[in-house]
Amino acid sequence: MLTLFVRSVILFVAAVVAMRLMGKREVGQLQPYELVVVIMIAELAATPIGDVGSPLLYGILPMAALVICHGLISFFCMVSDKFRTLMCGQPTVLIRDGVICEKQMREMSVTLSDLMEDLRIGGVMDPSEVGMAVLETCGQVTVFPKAEHRPLTPGDMAMQPDREGLPLTLIMDGRVQYQNLQRGKLTESWLKAQMKALGYTDASQVFFMCVNTKGLLMAQGKGKTDMQTAQAFAPEEARW
């Protein structure tokens, strides 16, 4: 029993390492050859777990071979457009200017039900409102509404919105994120001063703290149910 447990852990770790080496992609974003690799890695990991008499290398070595093949294919896809087209295919237009492309849909084996579902996911109910719908190589459908049906943007009104960016996390569950302090060119003494102004004497008392590109500091103490806010600096001083 212990042997089976240890073998399962080793093969699980090997499978996780193999997937991590392939990069970060969701299942819906996988190219066809990547999906094949994922399925084969799962199968290779399962076989030695069920067969205790089978050496672990029978599962680990084929996984390594698949990761190497994946790396080689990915490399050639990056350096050769023809090879990428061969392995991944090309995006296909399913709707153009509100007209459904019947021929392309049949070639891609996409049904009208599938298309209407993808349009609803894209926030469109009427195909006539679609400027273009594209079936991507990963199998997802990207929907672009016509100009007259898309949401109004600040650019349409000749407005210049304020700069926006991802908030810079400073403290998470009592731990200071020093790499983010460096990224924002902020000092530890500055952080301590901000905590003191909000009533905290130590980072361990803070559950979450971040600062956005508008210079607004947001913090929530451990065990608290409210978020405190304070203006830490002027928006133009944001350095990330």
Key structural traits:
240 residues, alpha+beta, CRO Repressor, 3 domains, four-stranded antiparallel beta sheet, 8 helices, 9 strands, 43% helix, flat
Q: TL;DR?
A:
With 240 residues, the protein is of the alpha+beta class. The protein is 43% helix and 17% strand.
Task: Provide an overview of this structure.
The structure is a single chain. Helix content is 43%, strand content 17%. By secondary structure, the protein is α+β, with helices and mostly antiparallel strands. It folds into 3 domains: 2-86, no CATH class; 92-149, CRO Repressor (2-Layer Sandwich); 168-237, bsu07140 like domains (CRO Repressor). The protein has a 5-stranded antiparallel beta sheet with strand order 6-5-7-8-9. A 4-stranded antiparallel beta sheet has the order 2-1-3-4. A hairpin with a 4-residue loop joins strand 7 (206-211) and strand 8. The radius of gyration is 26 Å and the shape is flat.
